[in-house]
Write a structure and sequence with these properties.
With about 110 residues, this protein is mainly alpha-helical. Helices cover about 40% and strands about 0% of the residues.
């Protein structure tokens, strides 16, 4: 990359992810985009299943349909968590197409 940077001594974000986040010890693993996306899809499925279970439990004890709110610091998605946008995409698609327990919406719609 060095020949393509503005100055040889400048460190800059190239948009290319070279290493996986593996913790503080040992050698860093080379980033594997396919594996990372598979993990993000698996995490989205797990999150979906956990929300469905949560809603089912709450529906048994509440006198109205439960409202689940999941606020996040937007900085996590894409900056600190490289696959965060893909996780959101997988989750929203799975929530829309793969289940009938809840629907996505806004507090106003609720």
């Amino acid at each position: 990359m060095r020949p393509h940077l503005a100055a040889e001594s400048v460190r800059t974000f190239t948009g290319i992810k070279y290493h996986a986040i593996t913790g503080g010890a040992g050698e860093k693993l080379v980033y594997n985009r396919r594996a990372a996306l598979e993990t993000a899809a698996g995490h989205a499925q797990h999150f979906l299943e956990a929300r469905m279970a949560q809603i089912s439990r709450l529906a048994e004890i509440m006198d109205r349909p439960p409202l689940i709110v999941a606020p996040y610091d937007a900085e996590l998605f894409g900056h600190w968590w490289y696959e965060g946008p893909e996780f959101l995409d997988y989750f929203v698609r799975k929530a829309h197409y793969d289940q009938q327990v809840f629907k996505l919406g806004t507090p106003h719609e609720y």
